[in-house]
Amino acid sequence: MRAVLMAGGSGTRLRPLTCDLPKPMVPILNRPIAEHIINLLKRHHINEVIATLHYLPDAMRDYFQDGSDFGVQMTYAVEEDQPLGTAGCVKNIAELLDETFVVISGDSITDFDLTAAIEFHKRNRSKATLILTRVPNPIEFGVVITDKQGRIRRFLEKPSTSEIFSDTVNTGTYILEPEVLEYLPENTECDFSKDLFPLLLAKDEPMFGYVADGYWCDVGHLDAYREAQYDGLAGKVILDFAYKEESPGIWVGQNTYIDPSAKIEPPVVIGANCRIGARVQIEAGTVIGDNVTIGADAILKRPIIWNGGIVGEEANLTACVIARGTRVDRRAHVLEGAVVGSLSTVGEEAQISPFVRVWPSKKVESGAILNINLIWGNTAQRNLFGQRGVQGLANIDITPEFAVKLGAAYGSTLKPRSKVTVSRDQRNISRMVTRSLIAGLMSVGVDIQNLDATALPIARTVIRSSEVEGGIHVRVHPDRPDYILIEFMDSKGINISKAKEKKIEGAFFKEDMRRSQIHEIGDVAYPSQVLDRYCTAFEKFLHIETIRNSRAKIVIDYVYAVSGAVLPQMLDQFGVDAVVLNASLNKTAMSTTNREALLTQLGHVVEALKANFGVQVSANGEQLILVDESGIPIRGETLTALMVDMVLTANPRGSVVVPVHTTSAVEQIARRHDANVIRTKANPTALMEASQKNPNVVLGGSGDMGFIFPELHPGFDAMFCIAKLIEMLTIQERSLAAVRSELPRVIHKTYTVRCPWTVKGALMRYLVETHPAQNLELIDGVKICQPYDDSWVLVLPDASEPLVHLYVNSNDREWVDESLRDYRARVQAFVERESEAVASEVM
Known about the structure:
Oligomer: single chain
Radius of gyration: 35 Å
Distance between the termini: 51 Å
Strand content: 25-35%
Largest sheet: 8 strands, mixed
Helix content: 25-40%
Number of strands: 56
Shape: elongated
Structural class: alpha/beta
Strand order of the largest sheet: 14-15-18-21-24-27-30-33
């Protein structure tokens, strides 16, 4: 007799285990479900098996091949174009089925007496016999009613609660005569339960139901998958174990080492070639695959670990599923019902909360607490906040669901009925994320001042002049057009402190969020005169008459990302001729290459119009690149030095705030003006805070981040910077080209080296220990200064990537080149040495 093994589809409800594996190949007690089915067929003398395949067919073919190693003859029928359904795929191989045959589902575990069922079928001269079983909750199965002789009188596929008329259900195993296939159309999708069996019932063909004794589990979802394993270990189902029973209830594969101090409570399955470390605790119900390593002091409470898994020291796994080749590092916790897909990594001391699913090839960072499914993107981060707010891939990491939860977490750190502003750039993705944030905030009783699409400098000004606790701004990331950046500001308009970030992270990861009653839900208001508030503050700190008398002509390029082109309107009121380029909104953010092309275009327009200068505005009104009257761009360190020179010329003896890695040209310029330079950590919040708290600060920022004018508001503002430039160039009677020609000649170079997170701290310690303390500055990273001039080397770890940045600065080009070569070699050698040491410890 032949059997048709239906391999089924992709096992959607078993995701993430079936993303890269068909459901029949999912292991139960370290053997694929399909192998258990084949063993059942063999026990009942059915040795010819035809497998119908569609989803990832090679996985089953490669495993079973011709079936000779498993004591059967295997053939395969692949549905190439589209799935044909349970009956259609059998109709497709009708020419191979010339006598009574068995159809059996490839996603169930059972020990039914097939021999008795076949005898029942033949005794009743049945054309189709359904093997039935009785279950306490039949809602998810096809319900069947038979008469006293076993003939089927009625059935219903997956009834609702009100439709249940029996607890006897269809198990998906059938005994059929070949002629029933004649009722089915060729090459058409059709189903046994929905199409063939109702038709046989209508034609009054003899169709019987055999109510089988024994075990049956439809492994259709993750809970059932775990239960089938536990039932197999407990002996509730007759299964063939893959390994020898070394002692009662403990099955162990060949070449497996178990440390004598390990404690094992039966029943347990441990595969071949495994290594179980010292003092490991393995509780009853645990299933460990082949080639698995368990580190010392790990605690395993009924997990199911597939082949090739690595579990670190002191890790704790509880009733979870760890798929093929996954690594769970030291002291990590994977809690009950959680599933980690194949080839993923769970970092040290990370925690995956109950019933959370991690899709294949993902990384959960060290220390992260994962409370939501990790499906898209690559990484579950240790921290929500990076160098600058919360950022991630648009609609992949930063989704509406994520944003609702983030809004609720932020709102939960505020008092009920607090008010916050919410603003964004003009992109559709930003609108979507903003609305989700608003929903989260409202759910915890926070009131919203919705500024809609607003340039970030305007939002900061409104926050500062309003009675709000803070604000949120959403925009496409200035440097990564596929990323969303969400920034949180305090009541002064400054990016929130690290302590506040930690509070929000705590609420987010612990899901410690309040829920408001209906009458406490937050409200949304749309404040009026937002632009007027900004314009009033804007004009207050400018010499308007000077700008009117300048009769300046400038060209502004908005790079197809304009957020309310308020600046040209204001400049027009001041008598400035502002020519605007690329002010329409492009649906996709500009790439770096496209922005460079537009910058070249801007230079040509400035030359052709004989404009005073041009400016490319980006980052939703925060950042800018200048173009002088000759069309030559001014940016980066040159732009920083130029702005410092112009502002200190206008404000001698003032103070400027710059990040730690900025060119020493700023010190040389400051000495000319008897001014002071304050250096800060290389992040926007540090610059904003230092610009506010230090007295007499007239400028903060850098060419890369933007410029802060503390008198106006605490954030970066390209719009005010442009107006201020017109004023200063007019009063100082200079051009941008002239200012640039007078800047100090400082050589400033940078280089980036890859450096694992685990090595960064050791690298910094090594640098501190190998240089004289009097030559070091430790504001951010390690800066090694030369005692008698402005020469220095800065080694600065990246805040959000496994990188280290080298900055070398001097008036002497040869010294810069030699120092860059020297420190690049030192850092690379140290990183390689430490990485090898870490790798050898792991092994």
